[in-house]
């Protein structure tokens, strides 16, 4: 733990040092009334006080807290004869008497100084003379009074590490492998949990020395010892301690697996002839099952082992030392492991154990799949029906153990739903387990319950959290587990969760295994955890095609970068049955009337009802302008304004209808058009030189046919006729992506018309990106991603590498004032397809050429080509810092310096100068970069364009970090921070990218003076819209002042209809959806 955090906690913890156990556990002031304090009496709790000890106290003993105090220990050595406690009714009582911490809760070393926990002064000098050194005594004391209490549910003399390990320690006459393994674990754990104390004892890397000696001793014992007696007990105990050492270190998946295999080999060949056998068999079974759960493999233990081990678990309301109250759940979890491994084909045949078909292997496989599916359904019922025993909620410790068992149940159900049923992370069944699981975990933290064996369910649930509040709570739980347990793998588990949230394509922990490798698992307290899997979206339960590899179903923990409520992580365009799932509450009345009018217009025009309505929204880009085609991440959000297409597909020869496409529009501005039905992309006629609204539908059709040809090679597609009525509310040429919304909606409608089911959001977005280029616009992909992946109440962090994907970001809810955005249309028209040669397309070419030249000058090799066009500035940065440990922030700073050095001319470069810098002829340059997309320019501003791209990309990450931060921040500071980032972006767009115009500058300054915290252009620029960050309480005031100061100055008197809709507040809306009337 961070030293600063320790110092801040000490004054807080001193308050409850002398109170009763319950008040101290809750960190409340205790009035110390006996026999029951007021707080416990009011709650009906048993009130217990620590036993006061004689001798030196903390206040009058200045010695090192872990240095043994030499006092008389008469009778202690004689308490152990041959490794058996002389006082059977109170084993180890002389060594570990009464602790000063609550017996009903785990020791928290951070809250209780160790020297207050020790009721003895020195370890015995005989018979274990090898234990007399100060170092060994210190480590044993730490193990007994701190580390071991965190590993089991039982405490005091019932703790298995006290009950079984102490006799072995004091019965030995020499320092063997077990003692060294114990020293290694204790040393590493103390170093991990209390680094300042470990430093005081000059431990450093000493644990590695102990570990090495333990491994060497273990190998020697295995070579020399036969089977039977104490030898196996000590050997298995050594292995167990070595496993815990790996856990405390936070790594060693391969080493831990080797230890487990060795342990099972010994257990299988050993009779249950020693007292520790029951505990060891259970604990290794636990390790094995969790490792198999995390890695998606078949457990090392077989069904017979699981059956015998489960018989050793404490029954009823008895708290098992390994499993707590979840003991009766573990046979079901073990079966889940075996079924999952069999269903994935990893370790067991696809054929069922009861169904065989010797003549036809395919039939056998199908029967086997059906068998395992039925097994999964039975497991689901078993989990749903299971209940933790007992209901004594008056005892906080008992309540915590119950909640831990329930958390395991919910985690197992999530595993089943995601891995066996292939349900998406956003599915109601999955999220229906996440919420109650978080409640269980938060209660454990509230009551200060034991956290043994809790990390796996915590990480499973954390990776599936979908809202910022849930994620913040999950991280609090993880922090608490790390502080209490002191295991190094908790740190890596937190990293797994963060990477899961930061990753675009993996919505939870149950994706593919494409990144899984031998060294990737991090064995956490008893679990392999690390591996951020990439999820390959497959269907849900009941599929009959066998996955190509286990990697395609699940690996270990991640999740996602981002799951969020309804269908984002499903990667399937959702179907809604009510528009309330599409719009915010404020928009429902107006939108309901609009949809009814659309369907009525369709029936009036075509004499039949529309069968489907496709919908895609416009978007506003909050930060990250003109960097998407350089493949840097951007941060837009979907808006309520959208494009609707009501349609009906008519197949060839049906109803005597000759296939054709009829395009109608509810607006009189767009006249009705007809086009021939098409079966190939070549059949679609598009004249991109004309500003024709129907072109945006045709490019969607063209892209659809191209996609289907590639998806189904050799299949002849039919000519499908379509009857279409379009309605759009996204202002044209305003920077809100009306063209992207139209193309996305058109492509979605065409995919449905050609019979596609379960349309992939990624496929739709990529199709739309390529399609829009057919009308002469070289789009980067941000507009389409925002339109398709929009999520109500969330902005989107859109990434283009390593693949096109989107992460929802929810704005903080703890602020005193809500976050709102106002969109203001300057009413300066920017017709993209007309101005592109001198504006948009030119900027794309300038950035591409800048990247190619930087790659050559920095000797980075051949850059990756984007869409067959050229390299990107992002690829330059990635290659420049590949293999270097440079923070991302510093990478951007260095790239800005490189750009200024390599492009010193602020006035730009001619074609001839560019050709010389690239080592080619001028005509070659023009042909490669300026033919595919027309460009009009004499000089190319490489320096300014690259400076904008790198600085803007850095601002996107700053904006994302500010939204996702869980640190306490005031409302003023939050809005000031985000507003400052937006204002810097506007300055860069104006001064470096030259995509602003005077009207944009004017309205942004007016907004800032009227209460907005941030103001910038949005979209391509050169007119169009601006977006203002504003507190909800100031929205009305801002709208009034902007209307009065910009729109009512007489300049737009002849455009009153446009003025009425030019400035409005908005909220993040849903993305693409389908509706079946």
Automatic annotation (TrEMBL):
GO terms for molecular function: ATP binding; DNA-binding transcription factor activity, RNA polymerase II-specific; galactokinase activity; zinc ion binding. CDD domains: GAL4 (cd00067). Residues 19-49 form the Zn(2)-C6 fungal-type domain. Gene3D superfamilies: 1.20.1440.340, 3.30.230.10, 3.30.70.3170, Zn(2)-C6 fungal-type DNA-binding domain. SUPFAM superfamilies: GHMP Kinase, C-terminal domain, Ribosomal protein S5 domain 2-like, Zn2/Cys6 DNA-binding domain. Keywords: ATP-binding, Carbohydrate metabolism, Galactose metabolism, Kinase, Nucleotide-binding, Transferase. Its EC number is 2.7.1.6. It is an enzyme of class 2 (transferase). Belongs to the GHMP kinase family. GalK subfamily. One of its GO terms (biological process) is positive regulation of transcription by galactose. PROSITE patterns: GALACTOKINASE, GHMP_KINASES_ATP, ZN2_CY6_FUNGAL_1, ZN2_CY6_FUNGAL_2. One of its GO terms (cellular component) is cytosol. Pathway: Carbohydrate metabolism; galactose metabolism. It comes from the Eukaryota. This is Galactokinase. It catalyses: alpha-D-galactose + ATP = alpha-D-galactose 1-phosphate + ADP + H(+).
